[in-house]
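User: Here's a chain of 441 residues. Predict its fold as tokens.
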Amino acid sequence: MHRNEEPVATKLQRIANKARVDKQFKFTSLFHLMNKSLLLECFAQLKVNAASGIDNITKAEYADDLDANLDRLVSRLHQMAYKPQPVLRIYIPKPGSHKQRPLGIPTLEDKLVQAGLVKILQAIYEQDFIDDSYGFRPERGCHDALLALSQSVEGEPINVIVEADIKGFFDNVDQEQLMAFIRHRIADKRILRMIKRFLKAGIQEDGKYKASENGTPQGGVISPLLANIYLHYVLDLWFEKRVKREYQGFARLIRYADDYVVCFQQTADAQHFMKAMQARLKQFKLEVAPEKTKLLEFGVFAQQKAKARGERTATFDFLGFTHYCSRSRDGRRFRMKRKTISKRFTVKLIGFKEWLRSNRTLTTAEIMKTSAAKLRGHFAYYGVTDNSKCISSFAHQVTQTLFKWLNRRGKRGCYTWEKFTKLLQLFPLPKPRIMVNLLST
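Assistant: Prediction complete.
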């Protein structure tokens, strides 16, 4: 950056201020921000060991001649000579299943350009997105969505929950409709053209090219933002500005990417929403996944109604947790509690066992240190209010699995629990504990 040049962060903040003040303003001059300073910042934020795309260029190799590489990249961008390459599609094992999970890997320069576009677009759209959109946004996450859900269910007269999930959302986004949505705010033709190029870049699998007529760029850092823009117009604004105003009782939609729940006071409102939602999604070539979408009684009176019918209270899943009706410890107050989804628990445990199997040649010290890191990561996410039993069970299972695997290294039975206890003193595993408070009051 030249001495008199304004920092990129300052320029982006000025754009954000304009977007916040004038909700109808269309930005006509943004592409000049795709400069060396911005791309250098994006490069620094790339993961060091990230997989390379179809050109096989790694971050370390690109860094060997970083200044020249960035200069050439900026030149191609501003001559509109830059064309994204197809995303490399590979498959990785899906823990707990014989299925393979598809993974998209863009080239390093495509990651850089997408990251730059994200910074520019985010400055604008963060001023537009509603508060109850939590997925893939700065300073927001799953735990924020879960806390918002607790506040509604425990603090409002909620009687019905709609749990919804959009079927194959990222693969079925209508690209033309997405571009139409973006043009509500962006009138810079070069920005629009570059986004369109990424949408049309396609996929390379087993050396064969496949065009991408629908969906967002696989594995691309821009995909979550484009998804949020799409659902902002398809779902969020539609619910807030039109649908909710027709309802008699309280209603709140809480969304994390394509996974969302809607809280209702009135059953009739929830039933109307279920029909209206499916019709609305169909307009934009989307549909809900039937097995993950349902309407259920939930809230302070749900237990009483279920008991009168001789049934158990219904539960629902959201962001890795099963939510169920309960009471506070003294029994005086309704509480919505959560536990790790049983299938997710099993998959995580299978994933740990598979990691052990594929890394059994590591030293004992490396296995113990990595296992401790994996447990810390598990507790950081699943260690939420009321989930003590599940995280304690997970820690116990991991410990037992470690003992069994270490016992296989020598003559079976020669590695005693006493020896393992001494090893745990040398390489202690973290104790399960609640890391996140999700109490609504």
